[in-house]
């Protein structure tokens, strides 16, 4: 075939292949686009996606079952979870557990959501890049509860931590530990502790009784005396009285009339041995 004919047919063939590729791209709703079969919990599970496509990528509404047994139902954009969606997990016995409900961005939890963990803890609040960050509250599996600010998946900032016994701490947190100013309410004993905390330990504080100390489960045997702070007017009156007493009474100091004794080393002599000082 002559070269000039080949040169004419080359763009025609290229455009034909390009059209075929565009036609073969998945667009719109597609049902059960299966993935390869994988072994999951000693049985074969086939991953699939059912939903909308655009330019051969998942985009719109759809549901997907992956090889690890997680089922996602919600919004997609550019082949990633993006928008509002629900994530659940299928266990070996066939039960389905909810894992997350909320906002997604670029395939990660981002925004407000509800999360259930494997240890039966529950969190509701803000997420950023799959981590708890912002304001949120969590109920731990042991009965403890925290509500406040989060950063990098840990309590950070102002928050309230309530233990299962009822005792609670209100104050500042840094990297999951009590750090800064805070108040610890000893509900069991009926006392309040306000002070400074470092690395989850109190370094300086003031203890006082709560109003409901007698109603506490194990109240302290004796109450703590309350301190009464003086008012500004009272402080000024005391200062004025001190200034009015310009003349100070001289208090006689007893002195010995006998001459000084010679001090011998390693011999202890009492101060009141002289009869003049009696």
From TrEMBL:
<protein>
    <recommendedName>
        <fullName>MORN repeat-containing protein 3</fullName>
    </recommendedName>
</protein>
<dbReference type="Pfam" id="PF02493">
    <property type="entry name" value="MORN"/>
</dbReference>
<keyword id="KW-0968">Cytoplasmic vesicle</keyword>
<dbReference type="InterPro" id="IPR052472">
    <property type="entry name" value="MORN3"/>
</dbReference>
<keyword id="KW-0677">Repeat</keyword>
<dbReference type="InterPro" id="IPR003409">
    <property type="entry name" value="MORN"/>
</dbReference>
<comment type="function">
    <text>Assembles a suppression complex (suppresome) by tethering SIRT1 and MDM2 to regulate composite modifications of p53/TP53. Confers both deacetylation-mediated functional inactivation, by SIRT1, and ubiquitination-dependent degradation, by MDM2, of p53/TP53, promoting a proliferative and cell survival behaviors. May play a role in the regulation of spermatogenesis.</text>
</comment>
<dbReference type="GO" id="GO:0001669">
    <property type="term" value="C:acrosomal vesicle"/>
</dbReference>
